[in-house]
Design goal:
Number of helices: 15
Number of domains: 2
Oligomer: single chain
Number of strands: 9
CATH topology of the largest domain: CHAD domain
Strand content: 15-25%
Shape: globular
Order of helices and strands: EHHEHEEEHEEEHEHHHHHHHHHH
Distance between the termini: 62 Å
């Protein structure tokens, strides 16, 4: 039996509403582009790992799948990209039901797995039972396989449903696949799925909920095209956006909403930073939808911070008023309502279209405005512009600024910090570190002042005529906010001096 060589797999996964399945199967877009008849088959797969889940820790997956009359052993490597996943997989026909490392064509991978399993064998972890209907599509710009997967993932008596479409590039360019996906998103409620079946199976096995995802450093090169670097920044931001959706919907990790909003702000900051090379016809619509999503998540984040960082600690104090517990219950109800609104936004067709617009961004053609501009050129100019905006917003003495001006200064500091993080790989750590530290401390100080203002507004919002906030609670929270403002203003002068006195290293 000859093993099959590795394949480079480029695919996009779209989660579908089960109510749309019949209509999806009859979709004219599919039937106009298909070559030949649809092929349907049952796919029964078992996924294996060591007792210590060594493959999972290496972001690998090992399965044996029954595909009609055939049985295929597959090893998949870690995925890269945002939404549009790129990964290597090694397939081989097999007659057995147990893993056979000899069938793996890649010597290094075979040796790695042999070392991992020398003392601990591969054992079943979870299984999938999928009914797949597949069409081969002849699209302008490339050939794509569209597979509609409906079924379930099972592990130790627990199961989770699967209802998704996978588009796999078989030839041509990713743009063809993405353009077709965008057309589907105009007709159906579909969302980009970041989690593979393997990832969902492991979560089921471990009984673990989704976790938040922080931003990761983007390695840029000074001599590279500025347009290419913008694409990399947006791609990383998109990974962070998509990587927090499940945590937001699950609602058990408040960092999900926080990191989701951070991801959106970072992308918006990048679009603003590179606007000189970005056509307005691209930037404005994308920024509008990003802002809409950011606003939809805002109340949930405000209530999270108010409850976790202000109300709960205050209620633990010995001098907390008795009515504080009742007020916290009302605040929790308000937070639950804000999460409902956030979930509605995440499940909307509009958000699915935004996801695809973000996934498509790195594949857009380079505009004329970007020709000849390198990343290093843009970095120096942008850092200068962002620093100048901060200095102007701060004025002679930021401690004299009113609330609205302090809020504007905080936004400018945040934009400067994002720019610093975008381009930090172009400079040495010793150059960047003092600026990162000073800007972070300044932003946190201004953030604390802003929280006091926001939280006062939340108390006002709860003060309804038919259900007023108890005076004891209002005064207790107001005293805390006032102390926080005084403390923040007291720290602001020193943190501002530490930032202002640094010498720009990028000039």
């Amino acid at each position: 039996m000859n093993p099959v060589m590795s394949e480079s797999e480029i695919e996009l996964k779209l989660r579908l509403d089960p109510a749309d399945l019949d209509r999806f199967r009859r979709e004219s877009l599919i039937h106009r582009a298909k070559t030949g008849r649809a092929v349907s088959k049952n796919l029964l797969a078992v996924y294996f790992d060591t007792a210590g889940l060594d493959l999972k820790s290496r972001k690998m997956a090992f399965r044996i799948r029954q595909e009609g009359a055939e049985r295929i052993q597959t090893v998949k490597g870690s995925a890269g990209g945002a939404g549009l996943q790129r990964r290597l997989e090694f397939n081989a026909p097999t007659s057995g039901q147990e893993p056979d490392l000899a069938l793996i064509s890649n010597e290094a991978l075979r040796a790695e797995l042999a070392a991992l399993t020398e003392n601990t064998p591969l054992v079943p972890v979870f299984s999938t039972d999928i009914r797949r209907t597949a069409w081969m599509l002849d699209l302008e710009g490339g050939a794509v396989e569209l597979a509609l997967d409906v079924g379930k993932i099972e592990s130790e008596g627990r199961s989770v449903a699967v209802c998704e479409a996978e588009l796999e590039l078989k030839g041509g360019t990713p743009q063809a696949l993405l353009a077709f996906a965008a057309e589907l998103a105009e007709r159906y409620t579909c969302h980009v799925g970041e989690e593979s079946k393997a990832a969902r199976g492991y979560a089921l096995f471990l009984k673990s909920g989704p976790t938040s995802r922080k931003s990761k450093k983007v390695d840029l090169i000074a001599g590279d095209s500025a347009w290419v670097s913008l694409g990399r920044i947006v791609e990383e931001g998109t990974s962070q956006v998509l990587g927090n959706d499940a945590a937001i919907l699950d609602g058990t990790d408040i960092e999900g909403v926080h990191q989701g909003r951070v991801a959106i702000r970072r992308i918006r900051a990048a679009l603003s930073a590179f606007q000189s090379i970005l056509p307005e016809t691209v930037r404005k619509p994308l920024n509008k939808e990003l802002r809409r999503q950011q606003v939809a998540l805002g109340p949930a984040r405000d209530w999270d911070v108010f409850l976790d960082e202000t109300l709960q600690p205050l209620n633990a104090r010995d001098d907390a008023p008795k009515a504080m517990s009742g007020f916290i219950d009302r605040a929790k109800a308000a937070r639950a309502f804000s999460y409902q609104r956030a979930h509605k936004a995440l499940r909307s067709p509009r958000y699915g279209r935004l996801q695809l617009a973000l996934v498509r961004f790195p594949y857009l053609p380079e505009p004329a405005e970007a020709k000849g501009l390198t990343t290093g050129m843009v970095a120096q100019r942008l850092l200068d512009e962002r620093l100048q905006a901060v200095l102007q917003a701060a004025g002679a003495d930021p401690t004299d600024l009113p609330e609205l001006a302090l809020h504007a200064l905080r936004i400018d500091i945040k934009k400067f910090r994002y720019a610093l993080e975008f381009f930090e790989s172009l400079y040495t750590p010793d150059e960047v570190k003092p600026w990162r530290s000073a800007s972070k401390k300044l932003q946190e100080c201004l953030g604390g002042l802003n929280d006091a203002v926001v939280h006062a507004g939340l108390v006002d919002a709860m003060d309804a005529p038919d259900r007023p906030v108890r005076k004891s609670v209002r005064n207790f929270i107001a005293a805390h906010n006032q102390a926080k403002v005084e403390s923040g203003l007291g720290e602001l002068a020193g943190k501002w001096r530490s930032f202002r006195d640094l010498t720009p290293f990028w000039r």
